[in-house]
Amino acid sequence: MKLKGFVAGIAALSFVGIGLLSNSQQANAATWHKGTPVTLRGTYQYKLPKGSALGFGTRVKISSKKVEVNESGMPFTKMIHVHYKKTGKSYHIIGYILKAGMNPGGKASWEMYRKGNYFKYEGYQTFKRYGFRHVQFAKRVVH
């Protein structure tokens, strides 16, 4: 009787060991989330350089389901169907940009970062190559 229990225990442990040691891929389904992260929501505005002929600095408005970017002299950019995942200290945002003026629309991918009232964003491919080194901070505004 003790021998049957011992053999059953060894068999069970061997199956557990094989399961733990096997090289299976991990599912990463929970990293992408719908909408925008709560920490990024708000309105941010970049300052213009002194002597600039543009009317106003770039304004970025982030709500729960969309991201809107308004640049002086450029068509209004609106990203919908937004999803995000946290990548270190910043957020990788993906979505669909609506067609407007010379902006053809389509899929887009941005990297966004916020610390206190300061905010940065950059296209994801540029961010992968250079990071946020050359990007100015925008400041949170209340409108």
Write up this protein:
The protein is α+β, with helices and mostly antiparallel strands. The chain has one domain (34-141): Lipocalin, CATH 2.40.128. Helices cover 19% and strands 37% of the residues. It contains two helices and nine strands. The protein has helices at residues 2-21, 124-130; strands at 33-34, 42-45, 59-62, 67-70, 77-87, 90-97, 106-115, 118-123, 138-141. It has an eight-stranded antiparallel β-barrel with strand order 2-3-4-5-6-7-8-9. The longest helix is centred in the N-terminal third of the chain and has 20 residues, at 2-21.
Please state the overall shape, judged from the principal axes of the Cα atoms.
elongated
Task: Output mean pLDDT.
Answer: 83
Count of extended strands: 9
Q: What is the CATH architecture annotation?
A: Beta Barrel
Distance between the termini: 79 Å
The secondary-structure element order is: HEEEEEEEEHE
User: Order of strands side by side in the largest beta sheet?
Assistant: 2-3-4-5-6-7-8-9
Q: Fraction of residues in helices?
A: 10-25%
Low-confidence stretches: none
Count of separate DSSP helical elements: 2
Total domain units: 1
Give me the Rg, rounded.
Answer: 24 Å
* Assembly classification: single chain
Largest sheet: 8 strands, antiparallel, barrel
CATH topology: Lipocalin
- Percent strand: 35-45%
CATH class descriptor name = Mainly Beta
Please identify the structural class as seen in this structure.
alpha+beta
